[in-house]
Amino acid sequence: MADFEKVEYKFPDEREPEKKAKDDVEFEIEVVDDTPDPDKGRKPLEEPVNEVTDDELSKYDEGVQKRIKDIIDGVYDVNDKRQELQLEQEKARYEDMSEKQLAKELKQLEKAMNEHAKNLEFEKAAAMRDQLLKLRELAFGANLHDSVSGLG
Fold first, then answer.
1. How many other β-carbons are positioned within 10 Å of the β-carbon of residue 32?
2. Are 114 and 121 contacting, i.e. CB atoms less than 8 angstroms apart?
3. Non-local CB neighbours of 78 within 8 Å, separated by 6+ positions
4. 93-126 confidence digits (pLDDT tens)
5. 102 and 92, same structural domain?
6. How does pLDDT run across 32-56, given as a tens digit for each residue?
7. Are the CB atoms for 123 and 82 separated by under 8 Å?
8. Residues 79 and 67 in one domain
9. Could you tell me the residue range of the domain that residue 121 belongs to?
10. Residue 121 belongs to a domain with what CATH number?
11. Calpha distance 96→107 (Å, rounded)
């Protein structure tokens, strides 16, 4: 028959506290409730709100109401408006340039386009080309392309 070693079990509250190693660092975590006062005690929504009610909509002025309705209806595209604004800003910037500044800008864009093409960065080169064409169109008022016709 095998001999078993008798081990006395102690519950955690009966054990002597273990000495802490030097690397053990004590720290406290403080949890702060930063919920705004009006929202404290409010029950969470069962489902997210998908549509704006007429009561909520009436709280906003007419311009905001129209934009909210347009967004809901899918008429108003924020990205399109952002692009239009950016185009107008570019146009105004180029209109304020002197001929010398405009020529310098065209040269820089052309140089950047060629550099990207040389480095086999064709997507960036194409973006530079498009920007160059847009600048020429804004500057000269015509849709100019690098095509030559009548040669044969």
1. 5
2. no
3. 71
4. 877 888 888 888 889 989 999 999 999 999 999 9
5. no
6. 888 888 888 888 777 776 777 777 7
7. no
8. yes
9. 98-143
10. 4.10.860
11. 17
Query: Is residue 111 located within the same domain as residue 84?
Result: no
In terms of pLDDT, which residue wins out, 73 or 108? 108
DSSP 24: -
Mean pLDDT of 135-140: 78
CB neighbours of residue 129 within 10 Å: 19
**96 and 105 in contact (C-beta within 8 Å)?**
no
Radius of gyration of the chain (CA): 35
Q: Is the pTM of this model over 0.70?
A: no
Nearest residue to 126 via CA among 142, 143, 109, 139:
109
Instruction: Say whether both 77 and 111 belong to one domain.
Output: no
Q: Is residue 20 part of a domain?
A: no
* Number of domains the chain contains: 2
> Averaged over 64-71, what is the pLDDT?
76
